[in-house]
Amino acid sequence: MKRIFSVFFLFLLSLTSCIEIVEEITLYDNHSGNIKYRLETNQIASFLNNLTDLLDGSFENHLKGKTREFAGKIKSYEGIDSVKFNWDGKKNKNLLEFSFSSPGALNDAIYQLIGYKKNLFTPVYIKATSHAFQRKNFAPWVKKYLENEGIEIPAKDFMDLVTYKTIVHYPTEVKRFKGKNLKLTDNRKGLIQTNNLREVLENKTNVSIKSKQ
After folding, report:
1. Domain boundaries, the chain
2. At 46, which helix (H) or strand (E)?
C-alpha cells in the first residue's frame, strides 16, 4: 500500500511544476553583483514533502540546513558581503542572498568553498565586463562540493521533479546570447535558463551562459 501511494503522489507531481531552485544573479555597471537563491514549491509538493517516509526525509529541511552552512562559510571571504539567510517555511522566499564586489571575489570564494586549488589554468565561475558576460558550466564543481560536504543526492525519481532555474539581470540590453535552454526576458535585459536538477548534478547538461551587451 505504501508503494502504491508513493507512485500515486509522484504521478501527481509529474503533472505540474513541482519544485524550483532559483538562482538570480544581478550585475551592475561596476561589475559588482548580487546573488539570490530561493526555493519555490507548489501546494502538492509542499504536502508531499511532509510525508517524509515517502521520500526518506524532508528535502526542504535538508536544503535548509546545508544552505545555512553555506551562508556561514561564504560570509567570511573577502569581497563577499550582505550575506542573508532566511527560512520561514513560506513559499517563494529567498533562502540565501549575498553581494560580491567583483567577479574575481566571487570566483575566489567558490574556489575556497569547494576546495579548488587556484592556479594559472583554473577555470573561473563567471567573467563580466562592460560588454560581455560568461558563466562556466558549473555542474562538475557542484558535484565536487556535494562530495566534499558528504551531501547525499535524493532519489532519482524525486530529483526528476526538481528544476534549477538561473535568471541573470544585466544593466543594459542583451544583444546576443549562447547557451542551452536559454530565453531572453521581455525587457531584453535578462536571460532565463531552466534545467532538470538531476541532469545538472549528474553533469548531463551544459549550464554555461554567454552573452554580449
Report:
1. 21-212
2. helix 43-50
Ranges 22-26, 32-36, 147-151: which has the least confidence? 147-151
Question: Which is it for strands 19-27 and 162-169: parallel, antiparallel or unpaired?
Answer: parallel
Using CA atoms, how far apart are residues 181 and 195, in angstroms rounded to an integer? 7
Sign of CA pseudo-dihedral 46, 196, 209, 73: positive
Fold adopted by 21-212: Immunoglobulin-like (2.60.40)
pTM of whole model > 0.85?
Answer: no
Which amino acid belongs to residue 98? F
Cell of residue 90, nine digits: 513560506
DSSP 123: P
The C-alpha cell that represents 55 in the structure block = 521520500
CA gap 6, 159 in Å, rounded: 14
121-141 pLDDT tens trace: 667 788 888 889 999 888 777
107 vs 197: CA distance, rounded Å: 22
158: left (phi over 0), alpha (psi -120 to 50) or beta: alpha
Contact 105, 80 (CB under 8 A): yes
